[in-house]
Structure prediction request, 333 residues.
Amino acid sequence: MTIRIRRREFVTLLGGAAAWPLAARAQQPALPEVGILNSVVLAPVVDRLYAFLEGLEDTRFVVDRNVALEYRSSDGRPGALPGLAEELVGRNPAVIVCLTSAGTVRAAMAATKTIPIVFAISGDPTALGLVANLDHPEGNVTGAARVTEPLNPERLKVLCEIAPSERPVAFLLNSNAVPASTTNERIREMEAVAHAHGHELIVLDLAGRPDIVAIFAGMAKQRVGAFVISTEALFNVWRDQVIALSASSGIAAMFPNREYVLAGGLISYGADFYEHYRVAGTYAGRILKGEKPADMPVQLPTKTEMVINQKTAKALGLTIPPALLRDASEVIE
Prediction:
């Protein structure tokens, strides 16, 4: 089934609908097809899809007019990605766009060596083995990536200005999604930041531990006062649950992007992810016009933003320092 989305229908989805597809119509064979492979449920990331469509339209490709979309999602089930990628490849689309996680890209790469692949993900594409060189990606893969793991020490530094004094702080990550060398280096940096601010750092690896409720119960038992959550797509699946558990347990949280804060989280510091989803849209459009992925450098973030939810801070009994409020890109009252 080809899913072709009009702008007004996508706006309707932004207004509250929770699931794709929005419309299913008989395919017009003349339209080139863009396959989309996503690893998480659509609702938490719908604005990103909208940014992608805007980028596509920047190159004069409008869904249901001169391009069609075919969407597949594993809805948080990584094991389903290879089969979904093969389904898309079987349709022989003009380009496959991989969203939210490196797992989508690996699945598409395993399924085809010839169809162009464009990604919009978190993480370092070279460290993840997706491309050999950012400037000259070679092969059939390119895209845009939020390489924001280096921001984790800075995220922790900001959080330590808010966290209850003398209580441990935690770092939640999924080691399956980040190379061990990168993880270890970042943890050492974060330990130094925590100790400099009088806190112990507790590292919690969620790889193979799907019970997020148990994770929060463990943090409460260890009297954790605040935590930094990493950027892997795994946490997007648990976004609302993590925010709710943070509130109910009274543990302050630093998130990697504004989506969490708009949904009720305390604070975020990270790259503007709308930027790189829009880049993925323009890259897909350029490929539709005949450009080759190997000639298109991987794009990295050009700006960061901090978003603070004052309502959440008050509910947690926390006072945000005036300097942080001045530095914030946005403060939600």
